[in-house]
């Protein structure tokens, strides 16, 4: 096991991400348009940048109940209204995108944003991109592995010759444009499998842990596997970056946060479960209370409650970044804006101070 004290301290990064879900408001039944949702995502990113948050992420889905399918296009729009904040996908479904096209898109984004582009690559919970883009679901794992390895070669070389199984051969091909950064930062999204954690470590990418339920301590073995695999593959421990992602809602008091968030979170859980072919039963308030208790990874509460949860996870993982999804279940934009302000002004300064000690 690797001691977290062996890891060189760097500024702890805090940000937010969105999947652009479009659901009906549980109070009014209203459903906003995809156009309005996109405009609100751009406005949220601008607020996050102005407030001093470090990262803004945008997810990818290919369905009518989500507003974002062309992630780099949305991030490019955000780049034009922001100055400092890092811009990442969250996540790119790497099994169903051509790595050369992906590199070109995000290298272009990097140039437009003056070096703020990143990628979180994952396999995604939704599978509609496989038939949509002509891929076989049986090749799920092999596609991901081939694409991540090719992407890393593209990231390192401006000319490449390469032969694989799932796309055409490259013969001394120009890989353009080159990004503003020396290489594009890439993270692998990990939900809970040791194999994914080991792969991220072996490849030397960052690891973005999606911790959405259960006790956070059960993810500690994945962190250990990731770091062990990275070191054994010859990577520097301090270059093996870990991010934690989770759902959240912030208000002045924990009771206020729970009361306001419950209708939206139960709404979100209900329609996502339905989209994935699961139960359509509404989450009970008792179940929600259990999910949002102090020992869980659901970041719902007062600023102090959120600080305590982030720092508890930091003690477990020694991670480098926390990004929260705070706009789910058709939460009105003004509530998202309030959450951004609280995260930036009351939570981030304390977490950065405590993690720098």
UniProtKB/TrEMBL annotation:
Residues 13-317 form the Luciferase-like domain. It comes from the Bacteria. One of its GO terms (cellular component) is cytosol. InterPro entries: Bact_Lucif_Oxidored (IPR050766), Luciferase-like_dom (IPR011251), Luciferase-like_sf (IPR036661). GO terms for molecular function: monooxygenase activity; oxidoreductase activity, acting on paired donors, with incorporation or reduction of molecular oxygen. Pfam families: Bac_luciferase. Transmembrane segments: none annotated. Keywords: Monooxygenase, Oxidoreductase. This is Luciferase. It comes from Metabacillus litoralis.
